[in-house]
Amino acid sequence: MLGSYGLVHVLVAALMLVFLLLRLRAGYMSSRRRAELAVAPLWIGYLCVTTALILFCAYLPGMVA
Q: How many folded domains does the chain comprise?
């Protein structure tokens, strides 16, 4: 269950990065429209925290026992 939760977050982060790269390549990035560039790092930071918590929850029972 936790693995699928983490996988969904990884897929959303990858989709965001692909979207940003395609917009950049097509020339739709400007200094006035920077919302996508602000949201993607926040989401990737959330992904890192989520991944750390999932790994902690997955390996904690083995470390305690």
A: 1
